[in-house]
Amino acid sequence: MVVPLLIAAVVGYLLGSLPFGYLVARAKGVNIFEVGSKNPGATNVRRVLGSGPGNLVLGLDAAKGAAAAFAPWGFRLAFRAYAPALDQTGYFYLAIAGLLGAILGHSFSLFTGFRGGKGVATGAGGFAVLFLPGALIALAVFGATVALTRYVSLASILAATSLPVAAYFIGHSPVLVGVSAAVAVFVAARHRTNIARLLAGTESKLGQKAAEPNP
After folding, report:
1. Which distant-in-sequence residues (6+ apart) come within 8 Å of 5 by Cβ?
2. CA-based, 20 to 30 A from 101: which of 4, 53, 111, 116?
3. Contact 146, 207 (CB under 8 A)
4. pLDDT tens digit string along 54-91?
5. How far is CA 140 from CA 1, 16, 100, in A?
6. What is the pTM of this model?
7. How far apart are alpha carbons 215 and 30 in whole angstroms?
8. Is 148 exposed, middle or buried (0-12, 13-18, 19+ CB in 10 A)?
9. Which run of H or E residues covers position 127?
10. Would you report the helix, strand and coil content of the chain in percent, each value rounded to 5?
């Protein structure tokens, strides 16, 4: 089981490392690491380049997480005769390993000097595959928080926090509760500068434009 888990994690990491935020911005003549919050995530791309590129990056980053989580089941369906003899729980563990790899790859991309985003969109895509009810609850928490506060960073942290809570009360496996709690802590840690700005009252709100980029 160790070797399949390592393979799933490596494949997930490589998928997560695809730097869509950087590539989309670069296609517009902008180095996203030098403008706005200097983060290649969808929020900064949207703030710098507008909703079109921002939404494109959001969708692509979510697709990375979904692909990493679905890959073990996809391999089993496509190559049933050659797939490892694992039960449903085994493939669930492989999907978790793939998703965790993707979140790390997105945050510490091999292709951008181990710089990256904060893992929110990639995690959301993966949890939509692993735990759809929890992902929908997190989406509702995210939407409500943005509507009330206009702070995407706060919405991201609260949405991530809602996942382990939802998994616990819905009665999902302890493994998923633990993994989603670890992801929530990771997301909060990646937002530590945002938390400092929230406490200081200087955090940017959704809709605020960043300084004009220099192509």
Report:
1. 93, 94, 97
2. 53
3. no
4. 999 999 999 999 999 998 877 766 555 555 566 778 88
5. 36, 24, 23
6. 0.90
7. 5
8. exposed
9. helix 120-130
10. 75, 0, 25
